[in-house]
Amino acid sequence: MMTFFILVVLLCSLLIYKRGSLKYYLLAGIFTGMGIATKYPAALSFIFVILVHLFISYKRNSTTLINKKIILGFFSVLLGFFICAPYFFLDFSTAKAQLTLGFSSRFLGAEGSIGMENYIWYLDGPLKEGSGIFISIFSLLGFLYSLVRLRNKDTLLLFSFPLIYFIILGLTRVRWDRWAIPILPFMAIFAALFLVKLINGISYINKKWHNRKKTLVFISSIILIIQPVFKTLSYDYLISQKDTRTVAKEWIDENITQGSKIAIEEYCPVISRQKYNVFINKDGILIKDISERGWKGSIADTESLDSLTKNGIEYVIINKDMYNSYLKEGIRYPDEIKFYQELFKKVELIKEFKPHSKDKPGPEIGIYRFKWIS
């Protein structure tokens, strides 16, 4: 959704440059605010408005950079944000707490290294996987070609957001695949730019292709998008299949006695609280849970392993993807790894559900039984 609002702001900015109307300043500001309400980094999209405003001022030889239009455009950002997120202002204490949590640098499986490692991770991972190898190559070539034409105002406008956004991405300690999504449309634009220039060059060198440019563009476009389209269709099929957690829940209902005491952690099967006594970790304390939905916490954050036996826990359901994430970041999470390893000494694996890239989505789920039961 944030990406949609960013592109709308870009469109409004182009209309500002073309027509200079106040309404487009206001619309650009409102859509920027709406974008911020979905994800805070959307605030960077207002750079489009600022750049276009500077272009217009330079074009008109104006010495007054700050005028009524840009001021009202800025305040319309606040209006758009308030429309979509009124409780940010009405309940600011909660919003502040969520902001503090959101900007925390401690997120399991999403902690990177500031600088080059992050940039390489985004380029070789989410951006390449999200756009496909052909669009990645063409967008890079289009980007390099555009560097030569940086004095062109349209090109400078296209450069502004993705470049600044990408620089900021690399300077954050936390990294998520989805944070790269706002860059993907600009990669497509740069790829299309290079494709058009390439075909124009071919038709100029070889005159017989001049009347076939549209055909070349069509065929080339199909080749560029075939990989991401195939990946999208494959992913759509994958998530339409039974998740490992659904399969695990069905197995639990058939094989574990009702009334059993089961400890679970986040991203595990949603098992019935009416059939079973379900325990979760909350703020380090193992408590009985009555809500099938909501955040459950990691079992490894429980104050001690003894709390499991004291509560008479018979089964433990582990999200092995989480355990593997702890192992990958062992330096940061030695206590959590130790907890899991001590737990595995006291339990036995009775059933395991592994995902498959083609027909079974979800995390790897392990169902364990305390040895004292058997």
List keywords for this structure.
single chain; 374 residues; alpha/beta; 3 domains; six-stranded mixed sheet; 15 helices; 9% strand
Q: Total number of helical segments?
A: 15
- The total count of strands amounts to 6
User: What is the H/E string?
Assistant: HHHHHHHHHHHHEEEHEHHEE
Helix share bin: 55-70%
3D shape: globular
Mean pLDDT: 87
Strand content: 5-15%
Main beta-sheet strand count, sense and barrel state: 6 strands, mixed
Based on CA atoms alone, the radius of gyration comes out at 27 Å
Summing up helix and strand content along with how strands pair, one would put the structural category as alpha/beta
Q: What's the N-to-C terminus distance?
A: 51 Å
Number of domains: 3
Low-confidence stretches: none
Strand order across the biggest sheet? 3-2-1-4-6-5
Topology (SSEs and partners):
Elements: H1 2-19, H2 22-38, H3 46-59, H4 68-84, H5 87-90, H6 92-102, H7 116-131, H8 133-148, H9 153-170, H10 184-205, H11 213-239, H12 244-255, E1 261-264, E2 277-282, E3 285-288, H13 306-310, E4 315-319, H14 320-328, H15 334-346, E5 347-353, E6 365-370
Parallel strand pairs: 1-2, 1-4
Antiparallel strand pairs: 2-3, 4-6, 5-6
Helix pairs in contact: 1-2, 1-3, 2-4, 3-9, 7-8, 7-9, 8-10, 10-11
